[in-house]
Automatic annotation (TrEMBL):
<keyword id="KW-0808">Transferase</keyword>
<dbReference type="InterPro" id="IPR029044">
    <property type="entry name" value="Nucleotide-diphossugar_trans"/>
</dbReference>
<dbReference type="InterPro" id="IPR019290">
    <property type="entry name" value="GlycosylTrfase-like_prok"/>
</dbReference>
<dbReference type="GO" id="GO:0016740">
    <property type="term" value="F:transferase activity"/>
</dbReference>
<feature type="domain" description="Glycosyltransferase 2-like prokaryotic type">
    <location>
        <begin position="9"/>
        <end position="233"/>
    </location>
</feature>
<dbReference type="Pfam" id="PF10111">
    <property type="entry name" value="Glyco_tranf_2_2"/>
</dbReference>
<protein>
    <submittedName>
        <fullName>Glycosyl transferase family 2</fullName>
    </submittedName>
</protein>
<dbReference type="InterPro" id="IPR050834">
    <property type="entry name" value="Glycosyltransf_2"/>
</dbReference>
Amino acid sequence: MEEADLVTVICIAFNHEKWIEKALDSVLLQDYRLKELIIADNGSSDQSAGIIQEWVKKHSMELPVSANFKSESIPYCRLFNEMLNLAKGDFIVDLSGDDFLYPQHLSLSIERIRQVPNSAFVFSDADICEENGAKESYYKGNEVDDLRERVLARGFYQTLISRSYISSPTVVFRSQILKQEGGYDETLSYEDFDIQIRLTSKYPVVYSDHVGVYKRKHSHSLSANQYRRYQSEMLPSTFRVCEKIREMNESLSEDLALKERVLFELKHALWSANFDSAKGFVNLANELNAKGLEFRLYKVWLRLRLDISWLYVQLT
């Protein structure tokens, strides 16, 4: 494949001493040669920074690489945008320091996104690895066939409103569009839901039929604490994204998809006893004219502030 476009991989590490070297090696070993690597250590308290420094010394002659070290941790979206401003690439990858890329991920992704010149990003399948070592694909069974149909139907924005459908570590962004749209929203605690929604509301996206990333699930990962008991940092951000979607929506079917998402998030907010977030979701559901027994039960649950989060922890 002709390599005329530079790819910038932004790798952000936070207490990833067990995995960061593997993540960095995976960038070096990509069969796509025209790439640069920007590393940021977000105030790690373990040995991540030292491992990064040694890796850069060893490999700085093999690819363009820069390393940035924060003395204190700052919000992820803000840090990513700082690194995005340094990026020279035509395409951008957001790589977590605890994941790694398979060797052909960049070449296959770039080949696919070039086929749709105005697309905002390309995404693919991923291997999801549990702490016990069990591994499975992100997409199950016939989901890939269904996915292809949804992407081609150009109604993917509506699909992403109702449920998470993309393994975010696999995404390769078109740099010009990502920067034009302001990068990640720095008021949010996490990035993927919001940026995928904002981009798919304006631009086509494409799916590449390959497994591109090895993603680790562990107790310290951000996604593992999405519905953290009492103190979820992510639920308030999810609510703000849902409010944005309410403003962006242009059709009844999109509002119905949002109502489905809001009720889903409300359920988990109640189960995890994040009652302040639950109140916001109830108000938004009312604006969307939510009805039915399920919603009435949720409102009673919120009014009573019934805390059974101990059971939720056991079940999840």
